[in-house]
Amino acid sequence: MRNFELIGNFLLQLLPVINITLTVSVSALVLGSFIGLILTLGKIGSSRILRGIVAGYISIVRATPPIIMIFLVYYGLPFITANFFKINIEGWNRIYFVIIALTLLFSAPVAEIMRSAYLSIDKGQYEAGIMVGMNKFQIFYRIILPQATVVALPNYATALINLLKEGSLTFTIGVVDMVAKSQMIVSNNSGGYAWQTYGSLALIYWALSLAIGRVVALSEKAYQKKRQSISI
Amino acid sequence: MLKIRGLKKSYAENEILKGIDLDVKKGDVITIIGPSGAGKTTLLRNITTLESADSGKIEFENIQGDYSALTRQETKKLRQSIGFVFQNYNLFNNKTALQNVMEGLLTAKRMPKQEARTEALKALERVGLLEYKDQYPVQLSGGQQQRVGIARAIALKPKVIFFDEPTSALDPELVGEVLQVMRSLAHEGTTMVIVTHQMRFAQEISNKIVFMVAGRVVESGTAQAVFENPRAERTRQFLAETLVQY
Predict the structure, then answer these.
(1) PROSITE patterns, per this entry (chain A) (predicted)?
(2) Which of A194, B29, B70, B99 minimizes the number of CB atoms within 10 Å of its CB?
């Protein structure tokens, strides 16, 4: 019983900083999806050079461990901006660096997911779009993308859950998120109650992951319904 | 109205179209027939710029010149003045029948939504599918899907509609409804270029038949001339083979 009490108590201490985790994840989700979309366009486009660049970018990003990506961005980006653009960003809130690192990490799987979803859509519809006079952008935006999104949803959820977990490395550059807070709690207790502390942290991550899975499942279902709705 | 001269297309070493001439006048119903591999579908796809022809001249509206030298504007203009009905319907799967027909009106013609809706409903009515307007393609039979495909083409009021084997993917009992729609379009004076294996239908509705073999036009003329008095030996052979089953 004592353990449940402790875990409940730790949960209450950790939850107030959940907004850091959420901010990081949601920002990287939005920005990474956007960059992933652009990468996808490059990858399915007709320019060979562009395809090569995108493929190179994706394989490098995929081969970079999350923690190294965070360090690279945190230590490397200020160096680049200072030397090439004469902009000093050392005073930036550290959370921005995490968001940039995770955005880069997230964009690679998104590009792959979107590309395979795109390839799964029957291309006859593209030709049909051309023949009713639509331009490439209209066909992509109005016909291909809505269908590809549905195909991509399950894989997207997996990537999003990975992103959420990668976000647990935020503490490594000194942002006080739930992980950092857990560490503080444990050290304040001189190393005691460690498993209860990290247990409550794990509970929060489980709940978030489950919620993501649930939302995706619901939106999949909603689309199925829309398609099969019969309204004569 | 549409004049094609010396259209050529090769894939790798294979020359599929070896210089095709085609004249389409307003109100024409032209059917292209011929054995598999003759290049009939390839011809339609190249005329309509779905594929880029290697060479050949086109005269259409105020477009004049070689296919290999069409500007973006000209290609766009050409595509907006023609309709295309696909063998596999190629309906937009995320849109209802009505939305499928409205799509081109909204995007390419930039018509206001209400007006596009009215036009689209008219087109659906012409193919007899008004009561299916809110169905998605997955909920429609092949014949119904193809009729939506035809509605999508006619809604844009194209100068000429190309039909690429419109009934080839259909179950036999669904062929009739599609042919019926095409028949009524022909009677209303729609200019059509059709590739089909429905010989009786071709004979019935076409005012001109083009017989192709191996990338060349072997014979062309009125339906009566080609079907009843074929000049070329190859045409006679083909007709004997295909018509015997009826």
Answers:
(1) ABC_TM1
(2) A194
User: How many Å apart are CA A151 and CA A224, to the nearest integer?
Assistant: 11
Closest C-alpha among B112, B201, B108 to residue B163: B201
Q: Which residues of chain A does B80 touch, with a Cβ-Cβ cutoff of 8 Å? A: 133
Least confident of A69-78, B61-70, B186-195: B61-70
The CATH code that applies to domain A2-228 is: 1.10.3720.10
pLDDT in tens, B69-83: 888 888 988 998 999
Q: What is the ipTM of this complex?
A: 0.90
Contact B30, B220 (CB under 8 A): no
Q: Which residues of A touch B79 (CB under 8 A)?
A: 130-131, 133
Q: What ranges do the domains of chain A cover?
A: 2-228
> Which of A128, A135, A147 lies nearest to residue B90, judging by beta carbons?
A128
Cβ atoms of B182 and B166 closer than 8 Å: yes
Residue A160, amino acid = L
Mean pLDDT of B223-246: 83
Q: Which amino acid is at A15?
A: L
Please tell me the pTM assigned to this model: 0.79
Taking only residues 108 to 147 of chain B, the set having a beta carbon closer than 8 angstroms to any beta carbon of chain A reads 108-109, 131-132, 134-136, 138-139
* Cβ B30 vs Cβ B192: under 8 Å: yes
CA distance B129 to chain A (A): 11
pLDDT over 50 (residue A198): yes
User: With bands split at pLDDT 50, 70 and 90, how would you rate the model's confidence at A2?
Assistant: confident
Give the pair of three-digit tokens for residue B174.
């669904």
Q: Is A122's CB within 8 Å of B93's CB?
A: yes
Q: A97 and A22 in contact (C-beta within 8 Å)?
A: no
Please answer whether residues B194 and B87 qualify as being in contact, where contact means their C-beta atoms are separated by less than 8 angstroms. Answer: no
Report chain B residues whose CB lies below 8 A from the CB of A138: 107
Q: Do the bridges between strand B160-164 and strand B2-11 make them parallel or antiparallel, or are there none, so unpaired?
A: unpaired
Integer Cα distance of B235 and A52 in angstroms: 51
Look at residues B208, B198, B166, B162 and name the one whose alpha carbon lies nearest to residue B51. B162
- Put simply, the answer to whether B82 touches A131 (Cβ < 8 Å) is yes
Q: What pLDDT sits at residue A176?
A: 87
